[in-house]
Batch of 2 targets.
Target 1
Amino acid sequence: MSDDKTIFKRIIDKEIPADIVHEDDLCLAFHDVAPAAPIHVLVIPKKEVTNVAALTDQDAALAGHLMLTVGQVARQLGLEEGGYRVVANCGSDGGQTVDHLHFHILGGRALAWPPG
Ligand code: 5GP
């Protein structure tokens, strides 16, 4: 086990638990440990990619799969009718705190805009 693994890599490797709602060959979705909305789930690739800015042309299929999975998981969670927000924080100004690409799915209440 290497010490420089991100917390999400540890979740992928099942070294620490998470409340997983979807898993397939390419990605994982699990509830956020500190929910910012009644439903707050993270969709992450199993591949170690830092953020959206680090995606390359070689990741086109993966990026598409992640977006389709976001929609599928939101549907599974019953968010489709009321709507929801998808957020990918990128870098320090974006407020990214975990350096492993992730899409937040936030729903279950009306969300304000713009963010702070
Ligand atoms: P970011 O700020 O990078 O966009 O989002 C990181 C998210 O990961 C935060 O919403 C934070 O609550 C969540 N998070 C951090 N550590 C853990 C953890 O160990 N387990 C889970 N399920 N979520 C985590």
Target 2
Amino acid sequence: MSRVARVVVDLSLDREFDYLVPGELSDALQVGSRVEVPFGRRTVSGYVVSFVESSSFPNLKPIKAMIGKKPLVEENILNLARWIADYYVAPVELAVRTVLPSAVRQTSARFKEVNIVSLTEHASDLEQVAALRRKAAVQGKVMDALAAGPVSLPELTAKLGAVSAAVRALERKGFVTVGSRVLRRRADAGHEVLPTQPLELMPEQAAALELIRQSVDTGDPRVVLLFGVTGSGKTEVYLQAIDHVLKRGQGCIVLVPEISLTPQTVDRFRSRFGDTVAVLHSELSSGERHDEWHRVHEGSARIAIGPRSAVFAPMKNLGLIVVDEEHEHSYKQEEAPRYHARDVAVMRGHREGCAVVLGSATPSLESHSNAQRGKYALARMPHRVDHRQMPVMRIVDMRQEMEKERRLNVLSSDLYEAIRARLDRTEQTILFLNRRGFATSLVCPSCGAVARCENCSVSMTYHKPTHRLLCHICGAGQPVPECCPNPDCRDPAFKYSGIGTQRVEDVLHKTFPKARIERMDSDTMTKKDSYRKVLNAFRGGQIDILLGTQMIAKGLDFPSVTLVGVIAADLSLHMPDFRAGERTFQLLTQVAGRAGRGDLVGEVIVQTFTPFHPAIQAARTLDYDGFLDQELEYRRELGYPPYGHLVCITLRGAQEELVKLTGATFAKRLQEKLDSSVRLGGPTPAPLAKAHGEFRYQLILRAPHTKQMTAPLKDVLRDFKWPDAVAWSVDVDASSLM
Ligand code: ADP
Ligand code: ZN
């Protein structure tokens, strides 16, 4: 009996299909092979995900052909995809898709080849060459250009004009050869970095490195949580751990959050390890991505660095995965499969017997409790390198400020004075506000009406450069109304309230007309290189004040920044989310960490309306443990992570009653299958109750173990009849409950 292959096809289908393996392919075909299969009346492409002895389906069709010789997805990565599909309750096909970037998956994806021209031995015959020069000047010029070594044809053309005829003539005469070579497309071409040597480690760093090395060297490594304050030199520890792994002949993956995949971060790895670093990043062109991925696949790059999807890098003989800023929420994918890259990294490390390092100045409560329970090894680095001081944080109570000034200023007098002093001393300032736009809403002073988006349950943000209102959820825009939109009111004094980065920029220009100010948010960083440009200018001292959203909060290391100002610390605090406190604490600590990284002591000024909130106080006093105790108690009472797992099911649709009713029916079905340790809440309107014209309802499940929720959930999902007008999604270990 012939074998049967399970194939996931390239269409958005949530299933594996069985096909017969034809005799002539039975040796060549492997798990991960790309194939062409008959599908209805069409032929489609897909991947083999497994082989089985027999199928429960009759009349199987055979696989038509195999595409390419080597499988693109290795079995270990496919198994990881299967685990993701299972754990996160996502279609296998989506999970398989996720582990293989589209730039690689497309059949049209190819290497780029160029013609390389080089001199032959014949070219050293001086007499012949002299004769050639007299007769054919262009050919002589080509020979000169090649004197220092082979040059590609496009480069020759760029330098000398149309030369292909001359090159062909030279080839005929035997002076040159033309060969083709794969051209590596790279985003950082022309951007050179200076090589660096390993630094002599501080004692805390040395101890951390030792722990990681031990973990790498045992065959059964433990996860190491590297808990080091900002500026404690975590990156140097990663670099030396990686060096150790490379010397053992193994490869590494380094995960960084989306927002800190700055040129600065990548450069630190490139300057230590050079070309063996591959960058896997969604902002590369698809050609660049294709090439970088294949450099890892073929083994010419032994370090892969990138955001969450880099956890699937096809690195063979993996020795170490580093997850930098492991607490970052951008590691969670917000669309199916909703995987958490840190957790996938731990799983991959476990399966491939490779060490995993989770680094952070503010570890997630999950990782910290794993360390406390002894599941992870803990390396603590509570001091900054070279005994540099942690910045001093001052809290400004904006309620008092408002009373004193009789109005709400963007800059409190303390922050104003502090910036003024920096400008006088030509030191630099970073100002942080996690909200773009000019004003967060338009409010009517008479009736209180707010300009809202028609499609979403949020107010519209005013953008000054375009003088329009914009919805930050769905992107809808409209002109600014002349007066209050309430037909009974129509007050023309309809005015802006709430501040965004554009407004802060305006105020700064008016207050400090001579200062050089740059704003960094997704409205200004629209070009591929704008980020690098602004950061270079800031590093070079051409900018005095850098203002921005969370883009500037992480990972930046500028020695002459001595002041960090947080314009409004309350923004993240009042999010309707159980992680709001944790997030605020993390954000403040990270932002504050940008100050005082050089020889000068740093100062941090935080403006807030809730100065005594535990998250804010803990960030001020650098009291991670105190904050943790308090936060953990609250989590324990409610059974929130890390004291259990959480699954959020969101239903949405244009007809509110139908969404609600469907939610209730689903909840009832689910409840029948749940054991008593699972808590089910809802359906209740989601905090973001309406988005893109759809009403949103949530069901929240909490239980000690994920399987207690996902197994019955899959059961119900298998035959639940969803109305066409209701869409749904499942988020296991949801990081945000919006
Ligand atoms: P973190 O990632 O913990 O915030 P970094 O790795 O960015 O810290 O280190 C902060 C600064 O200290 C960097 O400029 C780095 O080059 C420097 N540094 C790190 N380790 C050492 C060391 N052992 N000796 C001297 N300087 C160091
Ligand atoms: Zn909207």
